[in-house]
Specification:
mainly alpha, about 0% strand, 9 helices, globular
Length: about 210
């Protein structure tokens, strides 16, 4: 019961796209399963964190390729600014397409996550992927500022959980959303996709 209540709070804090009883998000996820597995393995090999990526798409759009929010679009909710930027970083792989194209969106999410992961230093993979998700949600610059603030306050910038996640000068609403984002994906959504192969990020909550 304690874990269930915790996860409910996590999802609410992260602003998850919730589904009604009649919503067939499982069917939509199945339709894109092969594409996600292929892109994840092409980018990160057989040990790619496929359940994490799937959980992230679950969080962003509940697998709706036509999803729209105030600032972002598509299956993986890229903002127009990030879409334009990532096309300059990966012109051959992402130069053609847009956020409403599911294949482009899946490839862009995997490549952007990996790019962020490569630019983040952390104590271990669990901490590093949590920071990667924070950076996807709020920007790498904000994560780096939070790490510096953590060090200034006596925390350890190599650890997200219980350290970097505690320190930020962002607006209160942004802190709530950003800190809920990794928790919802890793602990609430990732478990739905463990059968898709790849590695699980972070041990389950006890």
């Amino acid at each position: 019961m304690r874990i269930a209540c915790f996860l409910a709070l996590v999802i609410a804090a992260a602003g998850c796209h919730t589904a009604s009883a009649a919503d067939d998000w499982q069917g939509r996820a199945k339709a894109y399963q092969r594409a996600l597995i292929r892109e994840a393995r092409l980018e990160l090999g057989l040990n790619a964190p496929i359940p994490l990526f799937a959980g992230q798409i679950h969080q962003e759009s509940l697998w709706r390729p036509d999803a729209r929010s105030a600032y972002a679009n598509g299956l993986t909710q890229f903002t127009p600014e990030t879409e334009a930027w990532i096309k300059t970083v990966f012109p051959q792989e992402l130069g053609v397409g847009n956020a409403f194209n599911p294949q482009w969106a899946i490839r862009a999410l995997v490549k952007y996550d990996h790019w962020l992961y490569q630019h983040i230093k952390a104590a271990n993979d669990c901490e590093r992927w949590a920071m990667t998700l924070s950076a996807y949600n709020g920007g790498l610059g904000w994560l780096q500022r939070d790490q510096r603030l953590t060090a200034q306050r006596g925390g350890n910038p190599a650890y997200w959980w219980g350290s970097v996640e505690r320190y930020s000068r962002r607006a209160k609403w942004a802190i709530k959303e950003n800190r809920g984002y990794p928790r919802a994906i890793i602990y609430a959504h990732q478990p739905h996709y463990l059968g898709w192969g790849g590695v699980r990020v972070c041990a389950p909550l006890s």
